Amino acid sequence: MLPLPRSLHKNKEIIDKMADDSIAISKCDWDSFETSWDFKKHPFLTYRGEARTLEECFANWADHAERQFRQLQKNEEELNRIFIELYGLQDELTPEVPDEEVTVRRADRVRDAKSFLSYCVGLMMGRYSLDVEGLAYAGGEWDASKYQTFQPDQDGIIPLTETAYFEDDIISRLQQLLILMFGEETLAENLRWLAESLTMKRNETPTERLRRYFFDEFYADHCQVYQKRPIYWMVESGPKKAFRALFYLHRYTPETLASMRFTYVQNLQEKLRQEEKRIEHDLINPDLSAAMKKRYGKQLNQLRAQQEELVEFDKKLAELANQRIALDLDDGVVVNYEKLKQILAKIK
User: Whole-angstrom Cα distance, residue 65 to residue 115?
Assistant: First the structure.
């Protein structure tokens, strides 16, 4: 049992008020991130106010987060003072709470830009909607009426390619979302803010950086956020990275792999063949410099290697597609991931 001094009741009202306030602040912080069941929409939009750009949205969110941080710190220090006085511990304890011990999060540009991109993937997949708060779809019956402003991907499959080969290219879809949220006049500014949040290479354009993020980095971040239990799964053809795609676990059906094969993989094979022919034609040019010949030669070798990888991958995909494998979400991610592991990227 915890010994309670008789004078506690004199402070009970203020203790209860600050405790409730601190709980509310902590819950608000937790619900600002998509791993919460009560997540409604990204904090950039929740605290947007009159902001017209992502940079302004981030500034508003940062101000809110800092106020919450300081309020929780103040509450905890005041509670410490009360209990130190009640128990006569002034000579042993101090009420101050250092920043590193405050349990709500401040704004962080890198983390929050990545979480915004993750939210956008959720919009593309239909997990979220610009028209309803919270989860729009996480299994069950699909309700098309929830998606008026922005239509999610028709099959819940988003190809990840180093070049824009498909209509539902992830960068094209991201641009559509940014235009719907903020208008076309700020699109370039918003793309640059996101790209610069991720750190750009020299001479890299914003769209190149964002494409590189989705292609090479997003899945690792996603697995980390969801503690190695991803809800978007990445299909990967092999070490040459000829084909990668995300699909939404809750929209997976026994037809998903066949759809992926015919809509994307076989189309990509044809697109790479056309790319190979174009480079072969360019190499014929007698005025081509030695440096350009070397560059084209390297691209040609890569294309041929990727085409070989796609041929083998198509066989594996066909074999699995023909099995029409069903997933039981009640079995969990680990069990279900094992069923498709031949074509999936490793969870790290």
Answer: 15
* pTM: predicted TM-score of the whole model, two decimal places: 0.91
Helix, strand or coil, per DSSP, at residue 8? helix
Let me know: does 296 contact 282? Beta carbons within 8 Å: yes
- Residue 185: phi and psi, rounded to 5, are -65, -20
Identify the three-state secondary structure at position 233. Answer: strand
CB 155 within 8 A of CB 168: no
pLDDT along the chain (348 residues), means of 10: 59 81 91 92 95 97 94 87 78 83 92 98 97 94 96 93 87 97 97 96 95 96 96 95 95 96 93 86 76 79 90 95 93 93 93
Residue whose pair of structure tokens reads 């402070």 in the numeric block:
11
| Residue 220 near residue 232, CB atoms below 8 Å | no
Structure tokens at 114: 């990545």
Helices marked H in 88-168: 109-125
pLDDT tens digits for range 75-118:
888 888 888 877 777 777 788 888 898 888 999 999 999 999 99
Query: Cα torsion for 35, 40, 42, 45, to the nearest 10°?
Result: -170
Q: How far apart are CA 314 and CA 320, in angstroms?
A: 10
Classify residue 340 by its DSSP letter: T
Q: Where are the beta strands (DSSP E) in the chain?
A: 157-160, 232-236, 244-248
Kindly give, in sequence order, each residue whose CB lies less than 8 Å from that of residue 16, ignoring residues fewer than 6 positions away. none
The two structure tokens encoding residue 69: 């941080």
Q: Is the dihedral of CA 274, 237, 127, 36 positive or negative?
A: negative
DSSP, collapsed to helix, strand or coil, labels residue 198 as coil
